[in-house]
């Protein structure tokens, strides 16, 4: 990787990020901390093999110039321990609400990608008094249809497939790269830095267990069990939705429908972008978030 390559986001800010822990309702939660002044910005990562520094590495430096940035690792992700109970969108909403309580954060801008985007919306619905703005990027929980149809349901039940995939990711950078290529608009755009970060997470003991737990409880025969569509008109917090027009995981129609139902929402559709806008459209995502701070 060379940071002067125009296609490679600069992730050097990770070296200056503080890694901290906090007790959240009796559980230890690890999080990243950056920035000394400004409003509070909480960044939520996605699922599968992800962590705060994986989803948000390119954004931490630019956003720390505008805000006090907090990027927690959900239970079972990164170094945060895996709990014994069922992991769902609602469970993660409760965890992040507890995180805000533990750090006494008010008037927060919360931004989440993929699974974290669904959690951000849920947080806005259930705990609006703590938030100033919700940002959902390529978010889950805005629809119920499964991208892979009944195959997705079957894979959720056959946990051995995820175990095998994680085992391959630990051994093969090429396998990690191929998986990431399926998420982005252009196959050639998979920075080596991102491959390294994901493979390091795959090599962490227990990697994939949180996602297997989550998928088992969130994926049903008829689709995703958590779908906030019917509640979106209740959202009293201003919202911004961001979606890559070539996202093959969650359809862009989800965000379009959500924006039309939320009382105060702005929608940004990124061309030539798949499911990883924080990496594919680094500057654009940073600009959207900075404008809210």
Structural notes for this entry:
With 293 residues, this protein is α/β, with parallel strands linked by helices. The chain has a domain at 12-144 and 227-290: 3-Layer(aba) Sandwich (Rossmann fold), CATH 3.40.50. It contains eleven helices and ten strands. Helix 6 (173-181) packs across helix 7 (192-202).
**Residue share in β-strands:** 15-25%
Overall, the morphology is globular
CATH architecture label name of the domain at 12-144 and 227-290: 3-Layer(aba) Sandwich
Question: At the third CATH level, what is the topology name of the domain at 12-144 and 227-290?
Answer: Rossmann fold
List keywords for this structure.
38% helix; 11 helices; two-stranded antiparallel ribbon; alpha/beta; Rossmann fold; 293 residues; disordered N terminus
Please outline the helices and strands:
Elements: E1 18-24, E2 27-34, E3 40-44, H1 52-64, E4 68-72, H2 89-102, E5 108-113, H3 115-126, E6 131-137, H4 150-157, H5 160-171, H6 173-181, H7 192-202, H8 209-218, E7 219-220, E8 223-224, E9 239-244, H9 252-261, E10 265-270, H10 277-280, H11 282-290
Parallel strand pairs: 3-4, 3-5, 5-6, 6-9, 9-10
Antiparallel strand pairs: 1-2, 2-4, 7-8
Question: In a nutshell, what does this entry contain?
Answer:
By secondary structure, this protein is an alpha/beta fold. It has helices at residues 52-64, 89-102, 115-126, 150-157, 160-171, 173-181, 192-202, 209-218, 252-261, 277-280, 282-290; strands spanning 18-24, 27-34, 40-44, 68-72, 108-113, 131-137, 219-220, 223-224, 239-244, 265-270.
């Amino acid at each position: 990787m060379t940071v002067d390559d125009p296609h490679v986001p600069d992730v050097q800010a990770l070296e200056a990020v503080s890694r901290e822990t906090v007790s959240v309702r009796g559980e230890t939660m690890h999080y990243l901390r950056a920035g000394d002044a400004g409003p509070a910005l909480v960044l939520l990562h996605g699922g599968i093999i992800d962590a705060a520094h994986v989803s948000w590495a390119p954004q931490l430096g630019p956003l720390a110039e505008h805000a006090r940035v907090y990027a927690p690792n959900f239970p079972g992700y990164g170094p945060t321990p895996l709990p014994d109970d069922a992991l769902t969108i609602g469970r993660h909403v409760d965890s992040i609400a507890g995180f805000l309580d533990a750090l006494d954060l008010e008037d927060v801008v919360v931004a989440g990608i993929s699974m974290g985007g669904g959690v951000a919306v849920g947080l806005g619905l259930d705990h609006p008094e703590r938030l100033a703005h919700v940002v959902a990027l390529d978010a889950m929980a805005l629809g119920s249809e499964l991208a892979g149809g009944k195959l997705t349901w079957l894979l959720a039940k056959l946990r051995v497939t995820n175990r095998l995939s994680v085992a391959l990711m630990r051994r093969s950078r090429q396998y990690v790269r191929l998986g990431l290529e399926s998420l982005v608009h252009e196959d050639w755009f998979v920075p080596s830095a991102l491959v390294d970060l994901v493979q390091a997470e795959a090599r962490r003991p227990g990697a994939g267990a949180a996602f297997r737990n989550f998928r088992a409880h969130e994926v049903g025969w008829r689709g995703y069990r958590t779908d906030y569509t019917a509640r979106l008109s209740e959202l009293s917090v201003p919202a911004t939705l961001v979606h890559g027009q070539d996202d093959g995981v969650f359809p862009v129609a989800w965000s379009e429908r959500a924006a039309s139902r939320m009382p105060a929402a702005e929608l940004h559709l990124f061309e030539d972008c798949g499911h990883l806008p924080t990496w594919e459209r680094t500057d654009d995502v940073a600009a959207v978030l900075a404008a809210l701070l």
